[in-house]
Amino acid sequence: MRSINRVMLAFGLISSMSVAAVQTLAAGVPFKGTGNAQITSVQPGPAGVSMTAAATGHSTQLGDYNRVESILVGPDGSFTGDVTFTAANGDQLNGKIAGAFTSAATAAGSYSFIGGTGRFANATGTAYFVVSLTDPVHFSVAFNGSLEN
Predict the structure, then answer these.
(1) Structure pTM?
(2) Which of 61, 67, 83, 131 could be bridged to 55 by S-S, CB 3.0 to 4.6 A?
(3) Half-sphere exposure of 112 (CA within 13 A, CB side)
């Protein structure tokens, strides 16, 4: 009888741990980091100013990364665009950008992740970012959010 109780207890503990692991994965993992970027292209147009930037940085989930982003800045200072983070192993995380300039040298907004390649093929999630221009061509970025797969 005691051995049956021990087996039942062990089975119950293993089942509980499995459910907890699945719930943790479903709830997402933290995604935060920092980077330094350089504006590589500026193109005025009828709908606003198109800008492209390249960055390097470090984050949870990616480790050291390279990043390329393209945004369209509207006349009111709001912007939308696309971003691709590339991890050191080549896996990519893709996202949409939405935000606005909060002053002449700062901006804030969000990334909405829409998949990628490798371990990010089915990734979703959101991270909020702040940007600080360090001169007319360079800026730093910090972001914080979560990813689900």
Answers:
(1) 0.81
(2) 67
(3) 6
